[in-house]
Each structure stands twice: as C-alpha cells, then as structure tokens.
Write a structure and sequence with these properties.
Two copies of one chain form a homodimer.
Chain A (H helix, E strand, L loop, with lengths): L22 H9 L17 E5 L2 E4 L4 E4 L12 H13 L9 H11 L6 E7 L2 H16 L3 E5 L8 H4 L16 E3 L8 E2 L2 E2 L5 H21 L4 E6 L16 H10 L3 E5 L14 H4 L6 E4 L10 E6 H8 L12 H16 L2 H19 L6 E7 L2 E6 L9 H13 L2 E2 L1 E3 L5 E4 L7 H17 L3
Parallel strand pairs in A: 3-15, 5-6, 5-9, 9-10, 10-11
Antiparallel strand pairs in A: 1-2, 2-3, 4-12, 7-8, 11-12, 13-14, 14-17, 16-17
Chain lengths: ~450, ~450
C-alpha cells in the first residue's frame, strides 16, 4: 500500500485536465495560479458553487447538487438560525476574550454539559489544527513525555507540529522522530490470529489494537522517547472509516493510561451527533478521554475550534505557558457555535443521523449482490465508508472510485474518498440529510455505476 | 531585564483582585474558571463590553469607552460595510477552496496588487499564528535550513512551532534549539560605538542591527544549524514599538539575503495602512520581503489570515507538501476581508493614520516637559509607543505604567502595554480614530497622570 503519493490528491483537478473545461470554469481555474501549487480543486470538472441551503448546493448555472460530503455545514448550509445569530452579533460587537463577554461563557458551559463530568475545562481556537496543536502540547506538558502515537493513515491538521503527526499527508512530509504509528483498525482486511476482524468482539479487536499500541510505545521508549499520548478520532475517518465493533477503543485507552499517556480524542470528524449513537464519538466507544478537540462542525463554517480537557491534565501547561488566541472564542464565533448546538438539540440531529444513516447504509448494502465492486459498507449515523474493490477480492480499486466520484458529480451529487488508497467513498453529508436525499443519492449512484458498466 | 515572568501578564486581572469587583463582574469572572488558567482578563477591574461602533465601545451599564488598543477592528467596530458583506455572504454560501468561488480569487488578486510585483502568490489561513507557522515551514523548505532569527522580545504566535520562536512568551516556554535572537532595536536605549541610537542614520543603525544578525547566524552555524531566515515585524511592536529611523531594515535584509536566508515580514501589526506611510510596514522601510504574513486587521474580527510569497520561494513547499485549511479563504471570510480593503481605500485610512497619528504623537510629546515620567514618544501613523520611566532616567517604570492603564480604564479609555518590561503604553486604535478621539484621550491621560500625582 505504498504506491499513492498522498491522500490529498486522490480527488483532484490537475492541469492536464484544463482542455476539457468550459470557458467560464477554465478562466476561474486559471486565476487560481495566484494561490500557488498547494491548492487543490475537487473533480476533473471543478464545481463553481454560489448558493447553499440544507443539504443542497447550487452552481453558477443554477444547477442543484446534493451535498453528501460537507460536515462543516453540519446543521445544513445557511441554516437560518445560524445566519441570524451571526448577523445579530456581528452588528453588535466582535472582540476578544481579554474583555468579559457572556457568549464564550454560555457556550463553554453548554458544550461541557454534553461531555462526561471529568472534562471540565475548554479553550477556544479557530481551526481543528490549532486545537490539536495545543492538545499535543498540553499532553506533553502534563506527562513530561514527547512521543505521540497515531494510526497509519491519520490526518490531524496542518500546523508544523501536527503535520508531523499526520502520515496521510504522504511521504514528502517528514514525520516527527518521536512519533510512532499503529496499523489502521481495518475491520475489512485485518486478521487477528488467523480470524477475520469483522467477526471479532470489541474486546478481541480492541485487544489486538492495544497490543499494537504497546509495541509502538515499547519501540518509542527503546529510542529514549517518553510516551505522551495517543491521538485518534474514534472512527478513524482518514484511515477509511472504522467505527466498529463499538467499544473496541476501550482496551486501547486502557493501555494508553497503563503506559502513562493521555488519550486525545480528535472529534473533528465523529463529534457533534454525527454518529447517531451519541453526541461525541468517544461516548459511543464507552471511553472518557483526557483531552477532546473539535473544529469543522462546530459553527457551520465560522472558523471555530476547541480543546476541552480534564482540569488536572490542563493545569501544567495552562498554569505556566501563556496562550492567547486573538479570534478564538470571539462573540461572533461563539454566537454561531451556540446556534449550531441549539439547532442540534431542537432538530434532533442525532436521531436524524441514526435513522437516515441506518437507512442509507441498508440501501447501500442491499446493492452489494448486484454490484460486487461494493466490497464493504460500514459506518455509523451519517458517516459512511463504502469500499470500491475489484470484484471478488478486497483489492482497492482507486481508479474506479475516482471515476465514480466524477460520475456522481455529473449526476449532481458531491462526495469524496478516503482511506490509504483513496478507494473508500466517504459519505458524510450535512446532518439534516433526509430519507428523500438518500433516495436521490441511491438513484444517482445506480446511474453512475451503470454508466461505468459496474 | 530578566525580572518579568512573561509579557502576557503585565496587564492582567489576578484572583486576589476578586474582592474589589462589583457582584455582576465578579460572577462573570468566576464563571471563567471553566476556561482554565491560561485565559487572562485585562485590568484589575475587567471590562464587560456589549457593543461597539467605530472607535467606541460600550459596557453592559451603557458606559462609553474610547478604544485606543484594538487593531482587529481595523476599520472600526461593526463597520456597516463589513457587517453587510458578512451578512450577505453568510446567507448565500460558506464553503471551502476545493470548490471554485470568486471571493477568494478577487481578494487574492486585490491584496497582491497592494504589494511589490515580486510577491505574486497568496494562501489563506485563519490566524496570524497559522500564517507564521506556514511561513516558517516554507522558508525552511526553500532554503534547506532550519534556523530562524527573531528579536529578543518577539511574539509571532501560539502554535508549537511559533511559540518556540516567541521569546516574549517568557521563560516557561522553551525556545527552539535552532533559533537565535538579536537585540531589540531600541532606539531609546541602545548605544552604537558610544553614540546614542536615536541620533543615527538608517544606514548606521541598520548596520548595527545587521552585524547583530550576522553574529547570531554565525553562532547558529557554529552549532551546525543552517540559517533559514529572519522573522520580524518592521516596527517591532512587542519589543516596544521601534519604527525608526525609517529604512533601517535595509541593511538587515541585505545581510539576511547574503547569508542565504529569507525575510518573513510579519505584517500582523504594521500592515493594512496603520503606519500612515504605506499600505505595508515593509514598504516604509524600503524593502521587499520574500514572505509576508498577516492576520488580525484583515477582516475586522472574522478569523482570517494570509501568507503571501514570491512564487519561487513558495514552490518547494507548496509543490510537494499538501496543505489545506478548511476555513481559510472561505467565501464569508473573503467577503469580510474584501470589505475591509474597500473601506481602507474609500475612507483613506492611510491618510487618516498619518494625519491623526501625527497629531497624537505631537500632543503626547508636548506633555513631556510637564510630565517627566513620559520618557519617549515614538511611532508611526496610528501605532504609538509611549515609554513610562523613572523621571530623569531611562529606567522602565512598569508599576506606574500598569497603574496608568487602570486609571485610563476608570477614565473610560482602553489601551495596554508592551516592551520587555511592560512599561510602554501601546496606543493602537482602530484606523478610524479621529482628532476628537485624540482630544478625548489627551484629557483622560492628563486626568490619569494627575490623579497618580505624576
């Protein structure tokens, strides 16, 4: 599995595709030179979006798309309550946390009320990367260690520190010398003592992962590096979406604590009701983290993130090293985040994720007999991974997965891929996704598969 | 000058001040426990703000304050054109740069048009810390070096990488082993070959600073660390505000280039017309950086930042290492940033900064004969440093400076301090500050000085 360059360019427009673009799209794409070579557009035929509403997006020609990808617009694009909250606060005051303001206090209390009582402090930043960067520093300060363990295809952010802990960025990005990796908990492919992981109990599968972690930490310590913690999201989204068997992280976190480390739960992907089982991904695994981070889904697109922690874990860092984030926790971001949280409760996004996500997975699984390229359908709530493979095997078919993405885009459905070889469709729509939206997706998916002859 | 703990707590509320607070303020302050010990409030008697307009702020009791501190609300609190731009875009669409959108392209072109032609690429992030974190990685990738030079009291941000390059954070924060510091270009105190710096030409003062940089790089290389670049804002704001003699950075940047490094201009403080002399701080120094970063003043409080660079400097990083910032360059942040830029042109904030800032410095300097605690008044445009010293000496009087801040706050004027010993009043109001606002400040300043008997 070492042939990919990076996960980041699995679904990307490339300059050699320029010739096929219509003049208006081409002109916009050409103008992006000014952003430099790091910027990537989705699709062979990039989409020029101008409007959003719920799980729908519209391009400049008025074409309507179904959004099956964007978790930032967690309560739906342009949710009126979020728009109102931003509009109201931005007209009143937008300043920082060195003056008193109710918004940050109200939200801090409210978001902590969704977590176990042990997690009793929260700090605000602007991006998930900033939250993870701070979380790792807090973990290192608390434990006196440096070494962090992540999974083999983890992506946790773009700062210097976090990029070195994000193997999914590819081989051009050097990894930290003090980090170690454990294998992806790939229930579709891993065998434990000759038994397929898919059939194992949470204890047995978690026990295997815990022993991988113990090995990683032993190697780290053999190199003189003290263990600080394990950084992982509880559904391993960039690894390819592996939420089950539910509870398998229990033995892993037990091992982390045994070894003197802390567990940083990166909830950017599974948090905020998306799994349908609980508000937080770690809750459906039955574990209590030491540090919790989030970002993307918090404020429906306003740059807002957070790092919550047990006070005794936070103390050593926050009591000695100054940290001020100018925009973090500002009244406008907090108003947006509060509106998102209110909407999640009032519209029961957790119940919707469970109900609609369950139906979605059921319909996808129902297609497997007729479409053997669908190797596996897994997920929880509105976070679904769908493996595209060579029929009759577990061999990833990235080429077909990418062709499917482009077909789906032509059928006005937006999504993307994940996993080490970019062959896993990542179906992660706004949480207001409905059963009718599932029907739209399924019919576009059928058309796309059949136009590709699979 | 090693007695301070950190610059971050020079103007901070501390728990032992709790007893003096009114019940409402006390209750809000107590609730902040949930944010942990890293959060700091300004003032012995923290301010509870609820509304802003231009350079004015109002607290919960309706008391009006003059804002002489906040550069985030660069075109004034709640500027109607910025509010409108945010409101309009947030109701339409807020997504990311993997789809096409005009806002990011229009703003990218427009902001680059304010810079020298050599700087022809720009990438967007959410905070100044993220911009500097990326800039240092770009500089390291381009030069193949690791070593960064900063000034002795520099503050460039809060990520793991940038905290290690920010000596102003104090001694609890370890500095990077590969960084070196040059002295603060303190024109009030430094002597060069026995001559006071204040009287020196830009060439002579810059030559001294360049030789300090050469020494720092020689020491770095003696330790086997290759030089990557110099990171500095061109008015050295956290060092205590040292913009003159105008042009003194010329010899310094020449040395940086000679030694194979790049110059990263951190424009978070001097950029966006604040100096009154030019749009960017580096322009008034007559230099062309290799990389330019900004954040705070870009979008009037929307979390928005950028890293601009020469394409040949960016290439090595951006051509090989994936970088995606989910919220960076989103349509709402770009709409806000565009509105700020439009307002800066239409309302001539540069001309206003020059005119009002000049009058402001003139009036402050005029007070020196009667108030010998004012040791030095310096600055450019609406960035002014005012040294509070023991009369007849250049010894910093931090205690008096902090007392003055609290007096000014009681006189409804908000500002803060900077410099290694926290004795320099940092006067940095929104750019719409008027001559009438200067009068308000001067009269509150007189009252504050006289109530302290100085």
């Amino acid at each position: 599995m070492a042939t990919r360059s990076t996960i980041m360019d699995t679904n990307s427009f490339r300059p050699e595709m320029m010739g096929a673009l219509d003049p208006e799209t081409r002109s916009l794409v050409e103008k992006r030179d000014v952003l430099g070579p790091a910027y990537r557009l989705f699709y062979k035929n990039p989409v020029h979006l101008v409007r959003g509403d719920g799980a729908r997006l519209w391009d400049a020609d008025g074409v309507e798309y179904l959004d099956v990808y964007n978790n930032v617009a967690s309560v739906g694009h342009c949710h009126p309550r979020v728009v109102d909250a931003i509009t109201r606060q931005v007209s009143l005051l937008n300043t920082h946390t060195r003056y008193l303001h109710e918004n940050v206090l109200r939200y801090a209390e409210d978001i902590l009320s969704t977590m176990p009582g042990e997690i009793d402090r929260v700090m605000f930043q602007c991006t998930g990367s900033e939250a993870n960067d701070l979380a790792v520093r807090v973990a290192q300060c608390h434990t006196g260690g440096e070494g962090i363990v992540v999974t083999h295809e983890a992506y946790h952010g773009n700062s210097a520190l976090i990029s070195e802990l994000s193997p999914a960025l590819g081989t051009a990005q050097p990894l930290s010398r003090s980090m170690r990796m454990v294998p992806t908990p790939d229930t579709f492919r891993v065998e434990v003592d000759g038994a397929a992981a898919a059939g194992l109990s949470a204890e047995a599968f978690g026990g295997w992962m815990a022993s991988c972690l113990r090995d990683a930490v032993a190697d780290m310590e053999r190199h003189g590096i003290r263990f600080a913690g394990f950084l992982g999201d509880s559904i391993f989204s960039s690894d390819g979406v592996f939420p089950d068997p539910r509870g398998y992280l229990g033995p892993v976190i037990e091992a982390v604590h045994d070894l003197g480390g802390v567990y940083i739960a990166d909830e950017v992907q599974p948090g905020f009701t998306r799994t349908g089982d609980a508000f937080w991904g770690f809750q459906r695994q039955g574990i209590v983290p030491d540090i919790v981070t989030s970002g993307k889904p918090m404020a429906n697109g306003m740059p807002t993130s957070m790092m919550a922690a047990r006070h005794e874990v936070l103390e050593s860092f926050a009591g000695s090293i100054p940290y001020f984030n100018t925009f973090g926790g500002n009244p406008v971001c907090m108003a947006a985040a509060q509106a998102v949280l209110d909407v999640m409760r009032d519209e029961d996004t957790m119940g919707n994720a469970k109900r609609v996500g369950g139906a979605f997975r059921g319909q996808l699984a129902g297609m497997q007999p007729d479409h053997p390229v669908i190797g596996d359908v897994r997920g929880t709530g509105l976070y679904i991974g769908c493996e595209i493979v060579r029929p009759g095997t577990k061999d990833p078919d990235q080429g077909l997965a990418l062709a499917l993405l482009d077909e789906l885009r032509e059928n006005h459905v937006l999504t993307s891929v994940c996993g080490p070889l970019g062959n896993v469709l990542k179906l992660r729509p706004p949480l207001v996704f409905s059963l009718a939206d599932v029907d739209w997706f399924m019919s576009a998916f059928e058309r796309s598969l059949s136009s590709l002859g699979v």
